[in-house]
Structure formats: structure tokens, C-alpha cells
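Input sequence (335 aa), recorded before submission:
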Amino acid sequence: MIIRTEVHARAGLLGNPSDMFGGKVLSVLIEDFAARVRLWESPHLALRLHPEHDRNEFDDLADLVDSVRRHGYYGMQRVLFATCRRFADYCRERNIRLRKANFAVEYETNIPRQSGLGGSSAVIIALLRALLKFHRVPAPMVPPRKLAELALSVETQELGIAAGLQDRIVQSYGGMTYMDFSGAKGKHTRLSSRWMPRFGLAYLAEEHFGTLESGQVHSQVRSRWQRGDIDVKRTMRQLARCAAAGRKALAAHDERALGRLMNKNFELRRGVFGDDVLGKHNIELVEIAREFGLAAKLPGSSGAALILLTDEDAEREMADTYAARGYSFRPIRVM
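Predicted structure, C-alpha cell format:
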């Protein structure tokens, strides 16, 4: 029997990145993009790497350089290794008995790379769910919150990447989620997505790719936070208030208020991170939408812009502009 799991990309609608600084965030899943894992019993334990994302053979040196630019130095190989190791340690620490059986696993993902949409965490959670099913671990032993924490530990403990719970919580629970990290343990609330405005996503084309990880984007601001920087702390409080106000705007079906909050979220973030850290492409992704009177913000660390689509004529012209400037754009369905 083949075990199949699927985890969707996530977008920070409001409040990010205050989740990493005791703030509040409102996040959704993107139905159009997902990571999928297939796992089955096998005589030998085998991690089947992706033929495009995890290449180790190339036509020539230029082909190797291009692959590194698009996929980084490690691809997803280290993520798969780290997930399996952390899963084994987690179960041993909690006396969870595992089957004495091997497995083979392979993954696929269409989540745009380097887009800040939780691509790595989607693969990690999909693999963890497959491993839990394979080893017949009862669901109550690893509920969604624990699954999110386990997934986060793969990146923070095993890989040394600065990351927060936002991606993992919304992906573990599977829908629009409001998260408050101001307390010792934090609280989260699943929200109804029966009414949602239309959104679009603009994101980098492959020629724009570098190898910067999301943890590197956040590292300087985290250091300032730890030093008690007043501007950083004030900005994170303001970002958290954006998320709280956005929850009310969604409940009231108030697109104008939602758009104002999305624009404010971006300006607050831009002010504390600075243009050099955000990068010209991320800024342009947002500013193109604004040229057509549409609200936009970064849904993750970098690489994409989430756009509130309120004018179909402007949307068509905007799509042409993104294409002309070498970016990808598409309307998306959020969950």
C-alpha cells in the first residue's frame, strides 16, 4: 500500500513576521500549490530524490551553476534527512514504538521556490504525516499543534534555520488560522473561510533566484529584537495589531479595510527591515500591484507578493505588466 500525503503552501495574510517576535498573524493556505509525499514499505530504506530539485549530474559547469542558483546547494535532500532523523529522535524521547520495517519515500512539489510560501515546511509536514501513518502512530499522540512543533524543530534544531510556528500551525491544521504568540504557549484559532475575497500571487521567475534562505532574511532583525531595539519592538506590536484588525475586517466582509491593512503591513515591514534586505525584486512585486490601485504585501520572507484583487480591469493590465517585467502572476484560491 502506498501512503500519500499532501500539504498546501501558506500565505501570511496579515501580521507577519511578528509571529517570530511574540506577535499575531493571520494566515491562509493556497489551494493551487502543494507538496506531496508518497511512502511505501521497502526492503531497504530509500529517500528518492527529485530529478530536478536534487540533481547531482549536469551537462556542464554552467548547468551546475544554474541549478545551484535555482535550487540552492542542497535542494531538499538535507530536509528529508533531517525530518527522518528528528522523527526518530522525537519518537524515542516519548517512548513511541516504531515498526521494524523499512520504507521508500519520494516527494513532488509545485510550490514556487524561494517564494516564502512555506515550501520546505510543506514537505516536512507531508513527510511527517506519512511516517506517522507508516508506523501506525495513533493520531492523538501527535495532534496538530505537536505536529507543528515537531516540524519546526526539524529546521531549528536539525538545520539551524531561524523560523517560526506560523507556517507549521496553519499547514498542520489545514485552513485559515489566527495565531497569537504573545503568551507563553501561544494561542491559535481556526477561522471560517466561507467568505474570502479574491487574491492573486505574483512571484519571482527562475532568473531572479538566489540562494538566500528565509532564516537569513530574519536574522538581523532578530538580533536587534534580542538587544531590545525600540523600533523593532514597536513595529512588531503594530504588525500584530494589523492581524487583529484583519480578523475583524474579514468577519465584516470589509475589503477596503483589509486592503488598507495589507498595505500598512508591507510599509511597517519595509521600515524595519530596510530596502537592502527586502531587495529590489520584492519591492517591485508589491509596487506593480500598487501602480494599479491594488493592495499588496509580502506573504512570507521574500520572493512573492500577495495581492487583493478588487478590480478586474486593473487585474488584467497588471498581469500584463508582471509578464513584461519578467515575473509570474496568477489568481489563487485560498483556504
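Checked by second reader. The chain is about 45% helix and 20% strand.
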